[in-house]
Design brief:
Blueprint: E1 17-20, H1 29-37, E2 48-54, E3 59-64, E4 85-88, E5 95-96, E6 109-111, E7 117-118, E8 133-137, E9 155-160, E10 166-167, E11 185-188, E12 193-194, E13 211-214, H2 228-236, E14 240-243, E15 257-259, E16 266-269, E17 280-288, E18 301-303, E19 308-310, E20 318-327, E21 339-342
Parallel strand pairs: 4-6, 5-7, 8-9, 9-11, 10-12, 11-13, 13-14
Antiparallel strand pairs: 1-3, 1-4, 2-3, 15-16, 16-19, 17-18, 17-20, 20-21
Length: 344
Amino acid sequence: MRIRKNIFKIRLPDPNTFVGGVGVALNTTTLMQGQLASTNPTIRTTMIKNFKNDGPNNDCSFYVGSNYPRAFYVTSFVSNTDVTYFVDEPGHITSIQQGCFRDAINFERIHFPGLTEIRSPSGFFTLSGTGIKGWVSFPSFNGTELLNYIFNGSKVETFHFPILTQIHLQLTSRLAFANITTLKRVYMPVCTSLSSFTDASIFNNIPSGTIMYLDPFLETSDGGSRDPHVIYWEDTRSAVIRYVTDITAANPITDLADANITANSVDLTFSIPTPNVNGNDFWEVWIDDGVSKWLKHVSWQEVTGSGQTITGLAGATNYNIKARTVDTLHNYSTFSNIVNFTTL
């Protein structure tokens, strides 16, 4: 009698965490765990499943099935010139520790949707001196820990912190969000508590014309006068202050279309949506090539009207593209219809 064996192959969970550029240096589960945990033993190798290296750019991916609070530490990715992005799609990273990613000059993109705190006491320059650029959103970030020296010298254009309530520093000599020469917008509409130290300690040396979307409380919080930080931003640095007094969603685009496709660009056309009570300001354009793990998680470009050109695309590449309205108080609409096209 012939015995038939049934072999069941266990399917590994699909990766949900993606790290760019480090596939050679961190090519095992143990090595990656060492960077994620550093001195934190709660992050174990058993939490990381289906670890693998992906593609020609030395990217890697893996699955994590639960939160790992207080990830990274003083030595995690410090002065690492390999790491280019870190995407935590399910939001398992809830807090990061002092000093991580400091001077990681090629680290350009970050997606931590579950991040609630950044711990940066003792002047360890968390996320400072990096190449992080463009649009950065931490939708769960509440700023309850010390924020000394975070993001200093980065290349960010927009910070989006919708529930950040406070920014506290440790000493008078500390700075946070300082010397960001590319900065255009800061959205923190419910932040009512800023460091009591020098008024130039937070968002120091911001460029002239930076738009700050702030809680109206800060307009009169200093005995009926503006908060000292607001005075510094507005009077010394010539920032544009917009107090967020209304959170009505903007109206969406419903007929987005492509035109004039080239090897590295495309024009977008659409009917301008009827303004809400605050008025249309601009439109965020989001793209996805189906390959780059970070691309779909960040805003690619802003346009101020129909018919403008989206640049920086790769040749012979299929893209999905969508847009959303942003009003003058930085309220978003839902996303438009998705347009699919291939560059030449």
